[in-house]
Design brief:
alpha/beta; UDP-N-acetylmuramoyl-L-alanine:D-glutamate ligase; 8 helices; 22% strand; globular; binds pyridoxal-5'-phosphate; Ribokinase-like; EC 2.7.1.49; phosphomethylpyrimidine kinase activity; transferase; EC 2.7.4.7
């Protein structure tokens, strides 16, 4: 007997080290019991110590991957991760508008923890003006929120202002991840919903080196839950629980910033 399963899409770069990027996305989606598909926009040669090299895919093959998926699958929600440069952002936006892949979660990946640039500076405009208006949810960390909103963030009030700015740019809902002010031992995430409601998620901060792929993982949980028809508030809470457990029950792989434990 066969079972119908929600189908989901990640549009991002690969991580040969398996801890971030498309690999982290698809592992997470599997754990959330959805069927994952992908559009590869860049290939990184990477391990837990850093990014050695990046090759951006040509427009032709990005377009063809979208076409192949649209021809055959019933995708209920999609996310973007590393988009590399402005040309890729244009291509992704063009394809997303052409097909019906459900709500879009935009994780505006810019710089890897090891310092490698995953989005060129000249792509910021395209993210602000073309991609953000399509976002059902955007999930920046603090540096990404600062860059996209133009607001320097030193307090929770400034987090709120940045979230409002991202809504003005067109994102329906905004999740700003991981504010920790006043050397607090807590981590705070702030959500501004479409209807103006707010949610603050306060959690423990774990002292660990093994947080490679955290952003990819939480956005993958959220998009999986949306594909299953869960409401956004519930999806975000599930994402947060998944991340906390994955960090708390860490695994040891590689010699640098290790990956999360996706089975936790
Ligand atoms: N490599 C790729 C391809 C990614 O998409 C991401 C996502 O943020 C990273 C690396 C960053 O990983 P890290 O969590 O170590 O910053």
């Amino acid at each position: 007997m066969s079972t119908r399963v929600a189908q989901v899409l990640t549009i991002a770069g690969t991580d040969s080290g398996g801890g971030a990027g498309i690999q982290a996305d698809m592992k997470t989606m599997q754990e959330r019991h959805v069927f994952s598909t992908c559009v590869v926009v860049a290939v990184t040669a990477q391990n837990t110590l850093g990014v050695l090299d990046v090759e951006v895919m040509p427009k032709r093959i990005i377009d063809k991957q979208f076409e192949a998926l649209a021809d055959d699958f019933d995708i209920k929600a999609a996310k973007t991760g590393m988009l590399a440069n402005a040309e890729v952002v244009h291509t992704v936006v063009e394809n997303y508008k052409k097909y019906n892949f459900g709500p879009l979660v935009v994780d505006p990946v810019m710089i890897a923890k090891g310092g490698a640039k995953l989005l060129s500076d000249n792509a910021i405009d395209a993210v602000q003006n073309e991609l953000i208006p399509l976002a059902y949810l955007i999930t920046p960390n603090l540096p990404e929120a600062e860059k996209l909103s133009g607001i320097t963030i030193n307090s929770i009030d400034e987090v709120k202002l940045a979230a409002q700015k991202l809504q003005e740019l067109g994102a329906k809902n905004v999740l700003i991840k991981g504010g920790h002010f006043d050397n607090s031992s807590e981590s705070r995430d702030y959500v501004l919903f479409e209807n103006g409601e707010e949610l603050e998620l306060v959690g423990q901060r774990f002292e660990t080196n093994n947080t490679h792929g955290t952003g990819d993982t939480i956005s993958s949980v959220i998009v999986s839950e949306l594909a299953k028809g869960r409401d956004l508030r519930k999806a975000i809470k599930t994402g947060k629980q998944f991340i906390n457990a994955s960090i708390e029950h860490g695994i040891e792989v590689g010699h640098g910033h290790g990956p999360l434990n996706h089975w936790a």
